[in-house]
Amino acid sequence: MTDHLLILGGTTEATGLAHVLHDAGINATFSYAGRVARPKRQPLPTRIGGFGGVEGLVKYIAENAITHVVDATHPFAAQMSMNAVAACAQTNAHLLALTRPKWVAQAGDQWRHVADIDGAVAALDGPAQKVMLAIGRMHLDAFALCSQHQYLLRLVDAPSGEVPLPNRSIIVDQGPFSVENDTALMRDHKIELVVAKNAGGSGARAKIDGARALNIPIIMIDRPHIPARPEVGTAQEVLDWMAHLASDLGV
Q1: Domains of the chain, first to last
Q2: CA pair distance 22, 6, nearest whole angstrom
Q3: Sheet-wide strand order for 130-134
Q4: pLDDT, tens digit, 9 for 90 and up, residues 58-90
Q5: Is there a contact between 18 and 9 (Cβ–Cβ < 8 Å)?
Q6: Does the predicted model carry a pTM greater than 0.85?
Q7: Helices 53-63, 78-91: inter-axial angle, 10-degree rounding
């Protein structure tokens, strides 16, 4: 049976892997969740949209003869990652996660760790401040409980509906961002506090370095728990994994 790899994508690392697989002539399909209006073009056949939970992913794997799945989703896409673990266990598809290291606090960082979005909302229960809310658009509703703050929102797409935060400025932009630009952005908006997810990687790190340079504290949302699965950090390691599996199978 010919190998057919499915990339669960949406990250910079997923795009890099797509180019490596294309150049290597490996049969692969790229999958977007469909949360971004203008996703980056990929060099591989691409599908957009959810699968419909574990059952839907199992069906897709079976119908498309998927032999390998690489979970290169965002570190906070925990539900998709959990679905991938369950679906690959049911179908015997080989699963590997392409992950990025967490950010680690450095000298000069002022981080307050919280476990989740609710923890970040609770940490904002205090006097009004100018807050850079760098969490994307999915959980903005939760912060309506802390409407006393002046928020700076940076979103990939312009919001299609009402934003539940009355005191906010919105910037539509897509990374990677530079430290110089993010430092200037926070300085211009007189930001006093940053709320960020510990996404890791380099594409969104600029705000972390900028906050350190400006002595701005950060409410850092820790990554959600994901069931154990094999993980690598580079596209080359994905190729090595596939070659190793092929060798084990005597291909």
Answers
A1: 5-101+225-248 (3.40.50.720), 111-221 (3.40.50.1980)
A2: 13
A3: 111-114, 218-221, 193-197, 130-134, 150-155, 168-172
A4: 999 999 999 999 999 999 999 999 999 999 999
A5: yes
A6: yes
A7: 50
Calculated CA dihedral for residues 185, 189, 193, 195, nearest 10 degrees:
-60
CB-based contact 215:140 (threshold 8 Å)? no
Could you give the percent of the chain with pLDDT greater than 70?
A: 97
Q: Which of 167, 172, 132 is nearest to 152 (CA)?
A: 132
**Could you tell me if 193 and 176 are in contact, meaning their C-beta atoms sit under 8 angstroms apart?**
no
Write the DSSP symbol of residue 134: E
Residue with tokens 């996703």: 39
170: helix, coil or strand? strand
pLDDT of residue 84: 98
Q: List the chain residues with pLDDT less than 70.
A: 1, 36-37, 248-251
So what's the pLDDT on residue 202? 83
Interacting residues of 90 by C-beta distance below 8 A, sequence separation 6+: 54, 58
- Digit-coded pLDDT (tens) for 171-184: 998 877 899 999 99
Q: Cα separation of 199 and 222, whole Å?
A: 9
Q: Which two tokens stand for residue 49?
A: 């949209």
Beta bridge partners of 197: 221
Dig out the tokens for 8 from the structure.
Answer: 């669960």
Q: Are 238 and 98 in contact (CB under 8 A)?
A: yes
